[in-house]
């Protein structure tokens, strides 16, 4: 009867949301307002100076002052309305000054100066309106981005640096456009049956992937406490995916369980195989002899998945990741990131403390970004695990 007992729904802690300061930083970054006003004004001021310089160099025989209309146009891209009007006022003074320098007002064609002035004033006012609209849209975009980040935090509920006998260090990056939300998922739970870990990768990105990730994580968090065996946990998650996820959608997953000292049980569902790194940096790729199909495709396979057990000592580091890591391409050659070749020197000796494990995942993530040139084309998750119970 215990499995049918309805647990009280946990409330999302305030930390899962975003503080006003973080929302403000999101807005500033979305609209380049985190830069100083001098840097944001630089394009418009540079255009102003170039027009003045060109007009002075070409002499009174040419009248280039009407080109000053580019100033409000450029200012509308980066400046706030009041800042824009200040820069445009300087441009207006330069426009009048160049008109007198070129003696346009003294000629019968003085209407050229009048036309340039009217055009400049109208365009300046219109550009100020455009800047205001731009800032409103940036605010709305920042709000959406902030909500997405808060949703991701509430969904993943990142564990602390230690869960049961395990130390953890994680790096998560979403490839969804400025949303910090994607289809990679992970969870580490201390249960009566041992410490259980799930790492998964939902097919696709965006909201649909997040919905599938919510189904997988919700099922895992319930089953991990109810079921005594890892195979039964996976079966519960598979059943939930089949019920609540559209046909054709699937999730690669890796289940792990640490129940007794010196060993870890692994269950592969079409996921990237984990890597064990020894104290001296020796790397062992933990390939499954008979990996199972991804979650959501179980009805298409005959038989049952089989788990494997491998040694996991106090000096070892278990490296889990998603395919966004191993399929990250080099920014010039296009080669995939060679995780198995690079991880040993970057992670060795990291099992000695939580601080060293955190430093190691930072080194590994930095190496991944260096490989790709600073950008990732897919969601990427790196999870490093060591143990303290030996």
From TrEMBL:
Which organism was this protein described from? Kitasatospora gansuensis
| Keywords (A to Z) from UniProt | Hydrolase, Membrane, Transmembrane, Transmembrane helix
Q: What is the lineage of its organism?
A: Bacteria, Bacillati, Actinomycetota, Actinomycetes, Kitasatosporales
- The protein's superkingdom reads Bacteria
Query: Can you say what this protein is called?
Result: PPM-type phosphatase domain-containing protein
InterPro entries in the record: Bact_Sigma-Reg (IPR052016), PPM-type-like_dom_sf (IPR036457), PPM-type_phosphatase-like_dom (IPR001932)
Bilayer-crossing regions:
41-57, 84-101, 113-131
The record places domain PPM-type phosphatase at 166-387
Q: Which GO terms describe its molecular function?
A: phosphatase activity
């Amino acid at each position: 009867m215990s499995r049918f007992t309805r647990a009280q729904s946990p409330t999302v802690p305030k930390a899962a949301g975003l503080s006003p300061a973080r929302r403000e930083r999101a807005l500033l970054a979305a609209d380049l307002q985190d830069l100083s006003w001098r840097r944001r004004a630089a394009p418009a001021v540079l255009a102003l100076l170039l027009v003045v310089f060109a007009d002075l160099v070409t002499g009174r025989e040419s009248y280039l002052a009407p080109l000053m209309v580019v100033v409000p146009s450029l200012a509308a891209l980066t400046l706030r309305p009041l800042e824009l009007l200040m820069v445009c006022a300087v441009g207006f003074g330069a426009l009048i000054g160049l008109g007198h320098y070129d003696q346009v007002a003294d000629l019968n064609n003085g209407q050229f100066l009048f036309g340039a002035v009217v055009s400049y004033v109208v365009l300046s006012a219109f550009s100020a309106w455009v800047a205001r609209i731009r800032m409103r849209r940036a605010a709305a975009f920042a709000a959406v981005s902030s909500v997405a980040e808060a949703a991701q935090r509430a969904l993943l509920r990142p564990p602390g640096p230690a869960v049961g006998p395990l130390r953890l260090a994680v790096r998560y990056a979403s490839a969804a456009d400025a949303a910090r939300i994607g289809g990679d998922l992970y969870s580490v739970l201390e249960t009566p049956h041992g410490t259980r870990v799930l790492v998964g990768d939902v097919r696709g990105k965006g909201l649909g992937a997040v919905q599938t990730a919510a189904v997988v994580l919700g099922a895992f968090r319930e089953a991990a406490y109810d079921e005594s065996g890892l195979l039964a946990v996976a079966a519960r998650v598979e059943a939930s995916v089949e019920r609540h996820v559209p046909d054709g959608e699937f999730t690669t997953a890796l289940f792990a369980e640490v129940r007794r000292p010196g060993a870890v049980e692994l269950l592969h569902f079409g996921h990237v195989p984990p890597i064990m790194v020894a104290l001296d940096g020796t790397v062992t790729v933990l390939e499954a002899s008979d990996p199972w199909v991804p979650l959501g495709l179980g009805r298409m396979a005959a038989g049952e998945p089989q788990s494997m057990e491998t040694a996991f000592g106090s000096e070892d580091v278990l490296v889990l990741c998603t395919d966004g890591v191993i399929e990250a391409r080099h920014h010039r050659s296009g080669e995939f990131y060679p995780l198995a070749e690079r991880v040993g020197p970057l992670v060795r000796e990291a099992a000695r403390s939580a601080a060293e494990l955190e430093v190691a995942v930072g080194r590994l993530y930095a190496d991944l970004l260096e490989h790709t040139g600073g950008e990732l084309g897919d969601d990427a998750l790196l999870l490093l695990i060591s143990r303290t119970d030996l």
